[in-house]
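# step 3/5: fold
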Amino acid sequence: MQPPPLVSSTLCVTCDDIKQTFPYNAADHVIDAWRQIHNESVCCGPVRRVMELRIQNEIAKQYENTLSNSSLLLDCERVELSTPTAKLVGVVDNIPSHIGQGHSALLWNKHGLTFTANKCIHLELEGDIFIKKSGYFIVSSTLIVNTTGKNNKTQIFGHNLNLLSHKYGTTSVLMHRQKSINESDNVIFTSFISAVFKLHVNDRISISVSDPNYLANDNSNDHFTAYYTYDMS
């Protein structure tokens, strides 16, 4: 059976989902530009930017709620969102990938800036995000690749998002980015992948790379995130 399909790079949500009212709304001009003529309550924009605004809105709401209860302590990096969310930060190790051929699956820091909430679980030993709620998820990964001080050779650096599908009983590569690099150039670049996927209960997603030696240990700029958007039903 076929794996879940890649969905459009444009995401539509209700404008209220991305309209930040506290402490101020800095995205009014963006929302007005995205507002649909046929339905003014719906806004459509690039997946990554929509994701950022939704997360900012949720955090702002949580912060506003805590102002009326001084006994609650809010850590903005760890705020418990009502939306299923996972953000894994900092690569600490790797293991052979059973999905990406010749790849290494990345293991993420379980402390620091890493957090999960509401039916997204970090499987530390496998490096997976375990999905416990079906729906459409914005999934992204950012890696800082550094060839400085490596051997003088040219090769391809591959960056994969992998899926272990519980519903279909299959494994697949959902996204793949590759770049030809010459280590003699001593370059540093960002590898970024992002899209919306239809995921099911008990699906597991992970990140793998062709050569983990190009990644710094526990770099806080290396991310793997999943953010629930809406129900598929």
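# step 4/5: annotate
Confidence is low (pLDDT under 50) at residues 22-26, 62-80.
# step 5/5: archive (pending)
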